[in-house]
Each structure stands twice: as C-alpha cells, then as structure tokens.
From TrEMBL:
The keyword Lipid metabolism does not apply. It comes from [Mycobacterium] zoologicum. This is Na(+)/H(+) antiporter NhaA. Belongs to the NhaA Na(+)/H(+) (TC 2.A.33) antiporter family. InterPro entries: Na/H_antiporter_dom_sf, NhaA. It catalyses: Na(+)(in) + 2 H(+)(out) = Na(+)(out) + 2 H(+)(in). The gene is nhaA. It is found in: Cell inner membrane; Cell membrane. Na(+)/H(+) antiporter that extrudes sodium in exchange for external protons.
C-alpha cells in the first residue's frame, strides 16, 4: 500500500478532505488549533501552528525535492542531455507560460504579486492521478512527469527564495552559507555519522529563517550537497531518499494540507470566489497555461529535432501530461501564503487551486483514456492486418 504510486496522493487527498470537513463543521476549533502560538520568543521562534508547519516541517518537503533533483541529474532521466532536454524545456514552459498568463490577467491589481502561484506541479498528486486514471500509460510518460514536476518545483523554489524574500539580513545569510560550507568540509574529512549533519542542518535552517529568505530553502541546498557517490560503501543519496521520502509523503505533506486547506466552502463563499479576478487567474493559469506551456514546449522541442519523446509516448499522452501538470496544489498553496496577506484573497486563490486541480484531473483522465483506447485500437488493427498477411501468404 505505502509503496504504491497512488499512496502519497491518497494520503494528501485524505488530509485535504479532513481539513475541509474540520473547517466547515467546526471552524472555531480548526482556526484555534492552527492559530495557537508556541516556541521560543528569545530565539525569534514563537509562531502559530500553521507557521511551524509551513516554515519548519515543510523543510522536509523541499529537502526531498532537492534529493529527487540530484537523483534525476545523476542517475535518472535528467542524467542524459538528449533525454533531459524535453522535460527540462517542458518544465520551463510549464512555469513561464502560466506565470505570464496570471500576470496578464492581474496586472495593476494587488493580486499580481501571486504570479508564482501557478508555476509548480505537485509530484504526489500528479503521479497518483497518472497511476489512477492511466494505469497502462507507458513508463516513459511517468518518468517525464516526474522530471517535469521536479524541475518545476525547483524553479518555484528559486521564485520563493528571490521573489518572496523579505529584506535580506546579510549576517544571518552569511551564517547559513558558512553552515553549508561546514557540511562540505565534514564530507571532505570523512564524517559519515548522521547526527553531526542533522545538527548543522538545524543551524543552517535557523540562520536561513532569520536571513529573510524562506527557511525551507535550506532543505533544498542541504539536499544538493548530498554526495552522489557511496561514502564508506554507503549510498547516501539513495538511503536518504528511501528514509525521507515516506516521511515527506505520509507526514510532512499531509500535515501541510491539514493546516492549509481548511477553507469554508459554503454557497456564499464559492459565489464570491467565482466573482473574484484572482480565482479565474489561478484557474486559467493552471489549466490552460500549464497545458499550453508543457505541451507546446514539448511539441516545439521534438518538432525542431532538439529532443525526442520516450518510446510509446504519443501526442495524446503529451496533451494528458499538460493537463496533469495543472495539479499545482502543495507548492501553489505554499506560495499563496507567501504572496498575499489579505485573508479573502488567500481564500479565493486557494479555492481556485482546488477547482483547477479537480478539473485538471478530469481532463487528464479523459485525454489519457481516449489515447489508450485509440492506441489499443491501432494495435488490434495492426495485429489483424499481420494475421491476414500471414494467411494470404500460406494460401
């Protein structure tokens, strides 16, 4: 169950449903629970529960993104330049086109600061939806989706780091950089125990938290410092992915969803959201922008002979891939809370993300089902033609 491709998406879906039920059936307890402050004032670490989740626990999420990127770059589909070119260009198109569309629709309004919201693709939901709606999809399609989602999320990380930084504190930033340098030195002198790296990692997170750059970026940087070759015979990168992956999928991301997706969904709220420009900007950027960006970039790359599609991946699969890429969810919700301070605008944006995710899943299911039926029909016709040809030769 926990090892299946569906499991992380199901865990995220269950947590989201629980948050929505909690917020709509007992709004006071939901808001009171996540609004409860705790921590250490003297260290500047007194925050409410939602901020602890978003600033601390989500570091695990971004750490895993960094590990997955390094794995893809060294051992996965991004390790070979010709094979990597298509998903990388697709990811860039799938980030730039939605962000540009969102900006065009919100230019001159307060909503424009949320241009980073529709850039990323949620790996857990996307892979889960693909496994659910297209179980017979070629393996190359899943590899492309993972590569696109990983690169998209890294681009979103850069946007979070530089687009939503709050006045850099250079001393703290220097301390964070020094901590990363210490990690490299520890690697060079042969430190293989985990606890010293955990200690330095916490210190790097603390310094990053106070630097003005979002603290979760520390997770990505530390992940990229992970050695790709075995140390003392131990495959560190593989072991970390094996250990941190389940913690991220079944603890960090579901708790994030539980803390951030509890929105009131009464008729009046939904009616008001449907009249808000930011709702439509998010919806169209994730649905149309992602499809045009991803599928358009793939078509241009393959058509110009700069890259090629994996075996058995057809144009219909590419369209379905563009639809699935509209599942922004986790990072989209995360950026929403960084981009806006107005509670109503945050609410409308998150409802737009929900609506886009549902419609993207439906569109992907339809497109990939039609593609599968068409491919099976072609394969059946081909087999029948071959049988007739053999029979004709025998006669």
């Amino acid at each position: 169950m926990f090892g299946s491709q569906l499991a992380p998406g199901v865990a995220l879906l269950v947590a989201t449903a629980a948050a929505l039920m909690w917020a709509n059936l007992a709004a006071d307890t939901y808001n009171g629970f996540w609004g409860l402050e705790f921590g250490w004032s003297g260290l500047g670490l007194r925050m409410n529960g939602q901020h602890w989740v978003n600033d601390a626990l989500m570091t695990v999420f971004f750490f895993v993104i960094g590990l997955e990127l390094k794995h893809e770059l060294t051992q996965g589909s991004l390790a070979h330049p010709r094979r990597a070119l298509v998903p990388v260009i697709a990811a860039v198109g799938g980030a730039v086109v939605p962000a540009s569309m969102f900006l065009a629709m919100t230019w001159g309004t307060d909503a424009a600061t949320g241009w980073g919201v529709p850039m990323a693709t949620d790996p857990a939901f996307a892979v889960g939806v693909l496994a659910l709606v297209a179980p017979r999809a070629p393996e190359g399609l899943r590899a492309m989706l993972l590569a696109i989602a990983t690169v998209d999320d890294v681009l979103a990380v850069l946007v979070i780091a530089f687009g939503y930084a709050n006045g850099l504190a250079w001393g703290w930033l220097a301390a964070a950089i020094a901590g990363c340098a210490l990690v490299v030195i520890m690697r060079r002198i042969g430190v293989i125990a985990i606890w010293p790296y955990l200690l330095v990692g916490v210190l790097v997170w603390f310094a990053t938290f106070h630097s003005g750059i979002h603290a979760t970026i520390a997770g990505v940087v530390l992940a990229l410092l992970t050695p790709t070759v075995p140390v003392a015979g131990r495959p560190i990168l593989t072991d970390l992915l094996r250990a941190a992956g389940p913690v991220n999928a079944f603890v960090a991301v579901p708790i994030f969803a539980l803390a951030n997706t509890g929105l009131p969904l009464g008729y009046s709220v939904l009616s008001e959201a449907a009249q808000a420009p930011v709702f439509w900007a998010v919806l169209l950027a994730l649905l149309v922008g992602k499809l045009l960006g991803v599928a358009g970039a793939i078509a241009a790359t393959v058509g110009s002979k700069l890259g090629h599609l994996p075996d058995e991946v057809r144009p219909g699969h590419v369209v379905g891939l563009g639809c699935i890429a509209g599942l922004g969810f986790t990072v989209a919700l995360f950026v929403t809370d960084l981009a806006y301070t107005d509670t109503i605008m945050i609410q409308h944006t998150k409802i737009g993300i929900f609506a886009a995710s549902v419609l993207a899943a439906i569109a992907a299911a339809f497109t990939l089902a039609v593609t599968d039926l068409r491919n099976r029909s072609i394969a059946r016709s081909t087999r029948q033609h071959r049988v007739k040809g053999r029979n004709a030769r025998l006669l």
